[in-house]
Design brief:
The chain is an alpha+beta fold. Helices cover 37% and strands 15% of the residues.
Length: 117
Amino acid sequence: MADITIYHKPTCSTCRQVIKLVKESGQPFTAINYYEKPFSKSTLKGLLKKAGLKSSDIIRTKEEIYKKLNLPQSHFTDDELLDIMIKHPDLIQRPLVKKGDHVILARPPETVNTILG
């Protein structure tokens, strides 16, 4: 059985709920605070590829930095958006949960159950 890795922000209530659900499942996991240990571009790109997502699928559009950087009016490539999200981690939807080769964006928190089975 593959271990679970949860990429999270400790102050995020959704992240805390996902961690609680995984703890309750009894499965081993590692929680990585991506503010303390930032994503590398290759890691984030690899997670998105495994999840079948593009960077635009996980950008947090309600963050102040999103508006400040004028992202709604801009046309960035997927790669450029990745660079922006690495530089501004508040823009990354969370939590990203990895188990083996399977990655999901666990929103709402209960979606984590799809990889706990």
